[in-house]
Write a structure and sequence with these properties.
Elements lengths: L1 H22 L5 H24 L5 H20 L3 H26 L3 H23 L13 H20 L10 H22 L2
Length: 199
């Protein structure tokens, strides 16, 4: 238990650093850490609700809580959606990857290794797209946000695909995972389509 808390504290510190580094050129530290405070407060609220009432829904309650906090911070500090979401997703993904790599080294397993590997692959995808998106011919707007939306869309698409064959993974609420992840993936890809066309 203590080790998990320490790992998550390290993950939270990594999240805060990456979130700040991604946005420091556009916003003051007070704004960045203000938004991150609401995100983490929402995430923690989702964790507590799942822990005591809906343990099988911990991923979705934590994600929903974080998104509510993100939305509140977005409105309060008037930050731009796409660049803030992009910073939020890559920071959370890094935290998640760090957590699963530690878990895998402590207790090697096929499932834990696969999750860590897939998350690391998404980080590589994010970095690749982030460094080249302005050169994509089909991405006419050239606006920031593509890397975060694409990585997030693939994240949920993979969750939906895995749920088709293995619906009882610990972080899945059964078969409903297919619908929830599928809807999220579709929504994110739709946002990419709209962002690409919006000059």
């Amino acid at each position: 238990m203590l080790v998990n808390w320490l790992v998550n504290l390290g993950g939270a510190a990594l999240f805060l650093f990456l979130f700040w580094r991604r946005l420091k050129e556009d916003y003051t530290s007070n704004i960045i850490f203000g938004v991150s405070f609401f995100v983490l407060a929402g995430f923690l609220s989702g964790f507590l609700v799942s822990k005591y009432f809906f343990p099988h829904w911990f991923f979705w309650l934590e994600a929903f809580g974080a998104f509510l906090g993100f939305s509140f911070g977005l409105v309060k500090y008037n930050t731009r959606f796409f660049e803030t979401f992009e910073a939020l997703f890559i920071a959370f993904l890094s935290w998640l990857t760090f957590y699963y790599w530690v878990e895998f080294t402590k207790k090697p397993s096929w499932g834990g290794g696969m999750v860590a590997f897939l998350n690391f692959g998404l980080i590589l995808l994010f970095n690749f797209v982030d460094s080249r998106y302005k050169n994509f011919n089909w991405y006419k707007s050239g606006k920031i946000g593509l890397a975060g939306l694409l990585a997030a869309g693939v994240f949920f698409l993979v969750r939906a695909a895995i749920a088709l064959e293995f619906p009882f993974v610990v972080s899945f609420p059964g078969r409903s995972e297919i619908v929830l992840s599928g809807v999220c993936a579709f929504s994110l890809f739709l946002l990419i389509y709209n962002l690409a066309k919006n000059k």
